[in-house]
Design brief:
- The chain has about 55 residues and is of the alpha+beta class.
- The protein has one domain.
- It has 1 helix and 2 strands.
- The chain has a two-stranded parallel ribbon with strand order 1-2.
Length: about 55
């Protein structure tokens, strides 16, 4: 995987939760800017919310 500079990506905190995952799905459907997802994966975080995305 190629390195992504900070000018080329957005950071989403809580991206495995309901709101964050829907934001990411909508973002990648409409934008070319890569997404970096940072999530603590506590009670609300679920990686299955992002199964439709390839790495």
């Amino acid at each position: 995987m190629a390195a992504v500079s900070m000018e080329e990506a957005i950071l989403v905190t809580g991206g495995a939760g309901f709101i964050g995952s829907n934001f990411i799905l909508q973002w990648i459907a409409n934008e070319r800017t890569p997404v970096i997802n940072l999530d603590k994966l506590t009670y609300a975080g679920n990686l299955r919310n992002l199964e439709h995305i390839s790495a």
